[in-house]
Design brief:
Order of helices and strands: EHEEEEHEHEEHEHEEEHEHEEH
Number of strands: 15
Structural class: alpha/beta
Strand content: 25-35%
Bound molecules: ribose-5-phosphate
Distance between the termini: 6 Å
Helix content: 25-40%
Shape: globular
Length: about 300
């Protein structure tokens, strides 16, 4: 892309600013408000937009509001004559990428269709829940991994000499492999089942392991209710682990997730800024800029 600007979506102003600085691109702000009835309003004052707009907008909670703003801004940019490259650091609705029970909506498919209908010509996210979700896009769509920067943070800020990385379920296996390779520690994969109706989680260790005195880091893509991490933490603590930390990309932290994890023995939570929280210790801004620079 030779001619582009960065458009700062209301939910990702920090990352957008960082990207514009790194890419030396013009940063375009979006004016926004919510009407008393809950509907969204957006406006871009500038009339001269570049050929391509890198629109940065995370669809973190409140997901529906942030998604609606994303659709409105994208459609507006198209009306202003720009091609939209959507950078969505946290992509909501990606956990339902297939029909687990008969009759369920495949939510990521609907989101992909709506993004394309709103004028998005290229899509980029971070650690999508399952790469199968990218298959629903007909435009070029990529997910980049934040695991290397999380691993780097652990190497620089934790004693990793006695560490074991743990995947709380099979879905996190590739992530934990990458993490452990970067940190230089062993890893284990747990088995997790979630009742599709009640949501009750059961976890167990698939293999025998001596965890006595080990520092454990549980690696996952996201923390929502904290249930998966808390279940894993209880088991690992009962097996003699000396400490439990968590490395995750997206800290949604719904309801009392933090309290639940702390009660189960979790000491530290390290997350990225795809969703800005007090646990956002590393930024994905540089990773995203690097990807955009190569387009
Ligand atoms: C599941 O497959 C995901 O990778 C996460 O482990 C899960 O979605 C986290 O949800 P919760 O925090 O509610 O257990």
């Amino acid at each position: 892309m030779d001619d582009f600007c960065v458009v700062s979506g209301p939910s990702s102003k920090g990352i957008a600013k960082k990207m514009a600085e790194e890419l030396r691109a013009r940063l375009i702000d979006v004016e926004y408000k919510t009407f008393p009835d809950g509907e969204n309003y957006v406006r871009i004052e500038e009339q001269w937009i570049a050929k391509y707009s890198v629109l940065v907008q995370s669809t973190s909670p409140p997901q529906d509001k942030n998604l609606m703003q994303l659709f409105l801004i994208s459609d507006l940019l198209r009306d202003l004559g720009s091609k939209v490259v959507a950078v969505v650091p946290y992509l909501a609705y990606a956990r339902q990428h297939r029909m687990y029970l008969n009759g369920e909506a495949i939510s990521i498919k609907t989101v992909a269709r709506l993004l394309e209908a709103s004028g998005v010509v290229r899509f980029l996210t971070v650690d999508i829940h399952n790469v199968e979700g990218l298959g629903y896009f007909t435009i070029p769509a990529n997910s980049i991994s934040a695991v290397p920067i999380l691993a780097e943070y652990f190497k620089n800020n934790f004693d990793v000499s006695n560490m074991i990385a743990v995947a709380p379920d099979e879905g996190a296996k590739v992530r934990v492999e990458t993490f452990s390779m970067r940190v230089g520690c062993e890893y284990l994969v747990m088995e997790k089942t979630r009742d599709r109706i009640s949501g009750v989680i059961r976890s167990q260790l698939k293999s025998q392991a001596d965890l006595k005195g080990k520092d454990i880091v549980i690696v996952d893509d996201l923390i929502s209710t904290g249930g998966s991490i808390a279940e894993a933490s209880k088991i690992l603590t009962s097996l003699g682990a000396a400490s439990i930390s968590v490395a995750c990309t997206h800290a949604i932290l719904a309801n009392n997730a933090v309290a639940k994890m702390k009660e189960s023995g979790v000491k530290d939570i390290v997350a990225t800024d795809t969703i800005q929280t007090e646990y956002s210790k590393v930024s994905v801004g540089h990773l995203l800029s690097d990807f955009i620079r190569r387009l």
